[in-house]
Write a structure and sequence with these properties.
Family: Belongs to the cysteine dioxygenase family.
Number of domains: 1
Shape: globular
CATH topology: Jelly Rolls
Keywords: Iron, Metal-binding, Oxidoreductase
Structural class: alpha+beta
Order of helices and strands: HEEHHEEEEEHEEEEEEE
Helix content: 10-25%
Largest sheet: 6 strands, mixed
Organism: Oryza brachyantha
GO biological process, one term: detection of hypoxia
Strand content: 25-35%
InterPro entries: PCO/ADO, RmlC-like_jellyroll, RmlC_Cupin_sf
Strand order of the largest sheet: 9-6-11-4-3-14
Length: 248
């Protein structure tokens, strides 16, 4: 059986419309995701190109044309694999220097496998404030704690949870790379799981006391962008998934 189908079968029994049924079930899915390679999802050629890539032959802001001039930047491509009420699977193929902006996965558990390439990951978790002040609510910012700020290189798998592990994150591709995401449950605006985008606020002296155990150097103040809209210029194109088909 193809590895991607084994992964899908494990997801069907390990995830419910409310998320993973247990930590043990989640670890089973992670173990199978660890085994997925580019060739298992139809990306062997792209992975080979990434292995041969270097910054001297392709500029960060685009591709070289016949005369050596830089051409337009390739968009991020999303390859949709499967979705049900319990989980979804898909792959983001990112050209060098492309960025998936700061966003969240409300109420969701997310497994991410870097199939090939290298990227920089920056992620945060919300800091709970029991009684936020009116002034804080008026300026529409929330404090978040830094969880991860480092490079990731394939193959690497991470897990984030609804309230920990870096649920709010951004990725910047250093080389061509592909990120395989398994989400449980999937995004659903009707069920309150809509993606929100954020930017770092200029707040420096917030009108609220933070827990004493929090390191101030790890705190940022995040402001949500309006109407769940991504930053201007962020474009994701639908790509063609060429791996084994997952039947419902």
């Amino acid at each position: 059986m193809p590895k991607i189908k084994s992964l899908s079968n494990a997801c069907k029994v390990s995830f419910s419309p409310d998320g993973p049924i247990s930590e043990e079930a989640l670890e089973k899915v992670r173990a199978l995701l660890d085994e997925i390679r580019p060739i298992d999802v139809g990306l062997d050629n792209e992975a080979q190109i990434a292995r041969n890539w270097n910054s001297s032959t392709r500029q960060p802001n685009g591709r070289r044309g016949r005369n050596g001039a830089n051409q337009f930047t390739s968009p991020i491509r999303y390859l949709h694999i499967h979705e049900s009420e319990s989980f979804s699977m898909g792959i983001f193929c990112m050209p060098p220097s492309s960025v998936i902006p700061l966003h969240n996965h409300p109420g969701m558990t997310v497994l991410s496998k870097l199939l090939y390439g290298t990227l920089h990951a920056e992620s945060y978790d919300w800091i709970d404030i029991p009684d936020p002040t009116d002034q804080l609510q008026e300026i529409s910012v929330r404090p978040a704690r830094l969880v991860r700020d480092r490079e990731m290189s394939a193959p690497e798998t991470t897990i984030l949870y609804p309230n920990r592990g870096g649920n709010i994150h951004t990725f910047r591709a250093i080389t061509p790379c592909a990120l395989f995401d398994v989400l449980s449950p999937p995004y659903s605006a009707e069920r309150g799981r809509d993606c929100s985008y954020f930017r770092k606020s200029s707040v420096r002296e917030p009108p609220v006391a933070l827990p004493s155990e929090i390191n101030n150097a790890e705190i940022v103040w995040l402001e949500e962008l309006e109407d769940h809209q991504p930053p201007e210029g962020f474009v994701v194109a639908r790509g063609l998934y060429k791996g084994p088909v997952i039947r419902r």
